[in-house]
Protein: WxcM-like domain-containing protein
Organism: Bizionia saleffrena
Amino acid sequence: MKNNTIHSVSIIEIPKIIDENRRGNLSVIEKNILPYKIERVYYLYDVPSDAHRGGHSHKACNEFLIPISGSFDVVLKDGESKRTVTLNKPNKGLLIVPGIWRELENFSSGAICLVLASNEYEETDYIRDYDMFLEHKIR
């Protein structure tokens, strides 16, 4: 966790199957797409465009964020650097490793963010104060 930086975060392309009859596309997450077993699934929706979500880091949990509909920005911080990633394609997701601060913002109308997490919810895994996050990174 302490050694993870914003460069440890990665965009993963989800395989897309294009229907030849133009009935829509299908994307599948299976096998070795993610480097962990999915233990929890949740999603954010009806988020006002001026609202911020996230505002925390995880000690052990990996999360894969997918823009199922619409778009949003993910602001990533590792204590030294900052990076903003715009997610707007449902066949591309963002893998966030432990030890990275994340904030979600600029939600488009109708945006849906699906999250596939490596751990079940556990409050003690969260660091919700940025100053405490910084302290935890240097320990």
User: Anything to note?
Assistant: The helical segments are 130-138. The radius of gyration is 15 Å. The chain is about 5% helix and 40% strand. Residues 130-138 form the longest helix (9 residues).
